[in-house]
Design a protein that fits this description.
- With 185 residues, the protein is mainly alpha-helical.
- The protein is 73% helix and 0% strand.
- The longest helix has 32 residues, at 59-90.
């Protein structure tokens, strides 16, 4: 990254070195190849734009800096992703899509099929009231008020069931330990 500050061509080497590990990191968090690819693009765009701000001198500092940008992009998505998606739809912006082989490669790289199986097993293992609350909130994208009405409970109880269910799911699906920095060869 230090060399890329004065030479954009060197940035291509940086991109190639970290592409797979950042993509894997993002895909394992959003479970959506298209979204992971979009976040990857934003991560590297920010890195290119901010390359002069990098002050590190080692590969570990370079990786930490890049993954910090990726985590920030992921956080921004979680906070405002739905707003951005609505804007894209409202202005009829054409967003390029991944090919089937690109989808398969990202899913394979991130091990999404195995994670999906583990998540499905963990979901089935939840107590029925937590499972239904999580399904309504996460899968159906329902508000807590709607969930409360559907389950005939208070909104606070609906929030608690979703929260407890998500915590249990987090414990039931092992987090990959080697992907924070990535497997760089």
């Amino acid at each position: 990254m230090a060399r890329a500050q004065d030479d954009v061509e060197v940035f291509a080497e940086f991109y190639d070195a970290y592409y797979d590990s950042v993509l894997r990191f993002l895909a394992r968090r959003v479970f959506d190849p298209e979204l992971a690819f979009d976040l990857l693009s934003e991560t590297f765009a920010k890195a290119l734009e901010r390359r002069a701000q990098f002050r590190g001198s080692s590969a570990a500092e370079e990786q930490a800096w890049l993954f910090s940008i990726a985590r920030t992009e992921l956080s921004h998505y979680w906070r405002s992703g739905k707003v951005e998606q609505a804007a894209v739809a409202r202005f009829a912006i054409t967003v390029p899509t991944l090919t089937e082989s690109e989808h398969e490669r990202i899913e394979s790289l991130a091990g999404l099929s195995a994670l999906g199986s583990q998540l499905a097993e963990a979901l089935v293992a939840l107590p029925p009231e937590q499972r239904r609350a999580v399904e309504l909130r996460i899968l159906d994208d329902r508000s807590y008020a709607d969930i409360a009405v559907e389950l005939d409970v208070s909104e606070q109880t609906a929030r608690a069931r979703v929260s407890r269910g998500l915590r249990a799911l987090g414990r039931g699906v092992p987090q990959p330990s080697a992907d924070l920095i990535g497997d760089i060869a």
